[in-house]
Amino acid sequence: MGASVDIIPPQRNVAVDAYRGLVMLLMMGEVMQFETVAHSFPNSTLWRILSFNQTHVQWVGMGLHDMIQPSFTFLVGVALPYSLRSRHRKGETFQRMVGHTIWRSFLLVALGIFLRSIHSEMTNFTFEDTLTQIGLGYTFAFLLTFVRPRWQWTAFGVILFGYWLAWALYPAPGPAFPYASVGVPDDWHQHLLHGFASHWNKNSNLGQAFDLWFLNLFPRPSRFLFNDGGYLTLSFIPTLGTMLLGLAAGRWLIADKPNVPLRKFLTAAVILIAAGLLLHFTGICPIVKRIWTPAWTLFSGGMCFLFLAAFSWIVDVKKHTRLAFPLVVIGMNSIAAYLMAHLFEDFVESSFRINLRMATLNIFGTALEPVTLGLLTLAVYWLILHWMFRNKIFLRI
To answer: Mind telling me which residue stretches traverse the membrane in this protein (predicted)?
Structure first.
């Protein structure tokens, strides 16, 4: 492994790559199906915790799994100052950089739509997943790298406040609102918000009204009525705010080099988490990941700063690069990891089922078979990524 660690280019920020690797590992780790296993151990606190943190919360709050998308988005922002510096050194013109950025945005959106359409009758034109949300806001984030930090922070504030105000002014659903007609059954009503916070209820909000118009402009098997999970196209607007937080982190990393701006990261984390919680508990704006509320942008952004601070401390301060190496292998090829998780799972798992005896997959018991099979699948993913790493094959958009 020592020789492999030496392959890492010196210009890479290993802490950032390791953080990105953890994010992708959490996403790929869905193959272990903790929720399914937890049903076999209904009295186990451990499996209840593992299951909770491998699924998205129903509406308010967060689990570890809910941090995957904001972390990935945040890290896109972190990479922007590095990308801009690299392109400046190559002598690229502003026009060329903008053209490349627009093309990258298009590819991200197109790839997201492609992956969601794999098992569909026709192209599934929706825009709520990680790649399309990043793609919709990426060009705007890139353009903001050219302005002074104070204007970046101004843009961040305007985006969040303007988005909050638009939702606050949109009529809230009344007590007689037909939630069942928008995919919210009676047994889900325990998650509904009341009072002013009801502006952010599932499928009865501004974003739902926009999608009811916008998504029906595209060809589809039947008219779009609602998203089962409550996810929205317009979430790309506050998601842009998450990218801008990452942009600030990346700017601090470059400006403070060779020092690590741990104090700035921790200060930002405390302020953002406190602000998000304040908005939530005062009823001004709830923390809801599925619709990316401004309070969620603040709270999850603070958590991202905490993760980045932790990885920076482990890798850059304590110099535990080898400890982070397994994650770096994944993080340096995040697009490849993303594609594997979406395209390879059925093939790899079916190959193991066909070629290994059931006794092997059930070595730890039938209830734990999903974990055993999932770990084997993850091992295959990692070995492929390690081979790509050693041969310097990196997928880029």
So the answer is: 67-85, 97-118, 130-146, 153-170, 231-253, 265-289, 295-316, 323-344, 364-389
| C-alpha to C-alpha distance for 290 and 62, rounded to whole angstroms | 10
CA distance 107 to 135: 8
Determine if the peptide bond prior to 258 is cis (ω within 30°): yes
The answer to whether residues 22 and 315 touch, using CB atoms and an 8 Å cutoff, is no
The two structure tokens encoding residue 135:
């793609």
Q: What's the residue count for the chain? A: 397
Place of tokens 């972390």: 71
DSSP, residue by residue, 25-84: HHHHGGGG-HHHHHHH-TT-HHHHHHHHTTS--SSBB--GGGGHHHHHHHHHHHHHHHHH
Give the closest residue to 74 by CA, choosing from 281, 352, 311.
311
Residues 6+ apart with CB under 8 A from 275: 295, 298, 299, 302
- Point out the residues of the chain with pLDDT beneath 50: none
Write the DSSP assignment of 348-388 as a string of letters. Answer: HHHHHHHHS-HHHHTTT-GGGHHHHHHHHHHHHHHHHHHHH
Among the listed residues 77, 393, 46, the one whose alpha carbon sits nearest the alpha carbon of residue 248: 77
Decide: 333 and 389 in contact? Cβ < 8 Å: yes
Element (H, E) at 38: helix 34-40
Angle (CA) 262-18-49 rounded to 5° is: 95
The answer to whether the CB of 237 falls within 8 A of the CB of 163 is: yes
DSSP per residue, 77-109: HHHHHHHHHHHHHTT--HHHHHHHHHHHHHHHH
The pLDDT value given to residue 5: 59
Residue 321's CB is within 10 A of a number of other CB atoms, namely 17
Token couple for 80: 């922007």
Whether 91 and 324 have beta carbons less than 8 Å apart is answered as: no
Supply 358's token pair: 């059931």
Contacts of 98 (CB under 8 A, 6+ apart): 139, 142, 143
d(CA 113, CA 218): 12
In degrees rounded to 5, what are phi and psi of residue 220? -155, 160
* φ and ψ of 175, to 5 deg: -65, -20
Closest C-alpha among 218, 207, 216, 209 to residue 133: 207
Tokens describing residue 70: 């904001």
Indicate the domain borders of the chain.
2-390
